[in-house]
Amino acid sequence: MDTYATRTPHHPAGPGPGARTGTGGRGGNGLTVTAMVLGVAALTTSVVVIGGPLGVVGLILGAVALRTAGRTGTGRGMAVTGLVTSAVAVVVSVLVAVLVLWYADHTQKCYRPDSFHQYTQCVRDQLGGH
User: Fold this and answer.
1) CA-to-CA distance for 109 and 125, rounded, in angstroms?
2) Which of these, 27, 34, 102, 16, lies nearest to 72 by C-alpha position?
3) Residue with more model confidence, 21 or 88
4) Contact criterion met (CB below 8 Å) for 88 and 43
5) What is the mean pLDDT of residues 15-38?
6) What is the 3-state secondary structure of the chain?
7) pLDDT (tens digit per residue) in 63-114
8) Which of 19, 37, 57, 110 could bridge across to 122 with cysteines, CB 3.0–4.6 Å?
9) What's the N-to-C CA distance of the chain in angstroms?
């Protein structure tokens, strides 16, 4: 077995202190990647309210990943991205849920129309448009 480490005894086999391994210098641990992926997935699904629960999980994992990144020095950017996208997803999901509930409350008289035209006319009347 002829390797660089065996030919030069003053160099230890393996990475030296401060060397990054396994991440290509781009990240840290699996939590940072998971937090970022969950944050982005939550943000893209937040308009159908599914992003809210995903965002909560992303916030938790992002906070843990940020703490871990503070100790290890890697993955801070992805952890912050996961936190921010998760937080925005939660806010958007809450706003969508509030909007849907408001709409349902203001148009509840229109839920049994005979036709779509009657429904749209009823909704206009209920929301104040003519």
Assistant:
1) 10
2) 27
3) 88
4) yes
5) 64
6) CCCHHHHCCCCCCCCCCCCCCCCCCCCCCHHHHHHHHHHHHHHHHHHHCCHHHHHHHHHHHHHHHHHHHHHHCCCHHHHHHHHHHHHHHHHHHHHHHHHHHHHHHHCHHHCCCCCHHHHHHHHHHHHCCC
7) 999 998 888 888 889 999 999 999 999 999 999 999 999 998 888 888 876 7
8) 110
9) 85
